[in-house]
Design goal:
about 120 residues
Length: about 120
């Protein structure tokens, strides 16, 4: 299995910055893709950013303000968020699609970290 643990969320003023981290562990043979998703109260979970084979994609709402990266040496994925807006307030989840050492595919989610942006 794959375990994901997010950290770095918190309360920040509009225009501020945060860096979220997602530490991953488990019997991983390879990673197909990882990503950050968020869910605001009363809304569906939405994609924020994904990273796969070094290629990154971003939601239009965060383009130019967020950067996703992965440090394989530290088994950690990051989401650097700048110029935060109140509409960025949500629980942010880490996602991983991996191939386990057993050869089977496994998708996992973290428990989330709260980001609150005050106006």
């Amino acid at each position: 299995q794959v375990q994901l643990v997010e950290s770095g969320g918190g309360l920040v003023q509009s225009g501020g910055s945060l860096r979220l981290s997602c530490a991953f562990s488990g019997s991983i043979s390879s990673i197909n893709a990882m990503g950050w998703y968020r869910q605001a109260p009363g809304k569906q979970r939405e994609t924020v950013a994904t990273i796969s084979s070094g290629s990154t994609k971003y939601a239009d709402s965060v383009k130019g303000r967020c950067t996703v990266s992965r440090d394989n040496a530290k088994n950690t994925m990051y989401l650097e968020m700048n110029n935060l807006k109140p509409e960025d307030t949500a629980v942010y989840y880490c996602y991983c699609s991996a191939v386990l050492a057993s050869g089977s595919s496994y998708d996992s989610w973290g428990r989330g970290t709260q980001v609150t942006v005050s106006s």
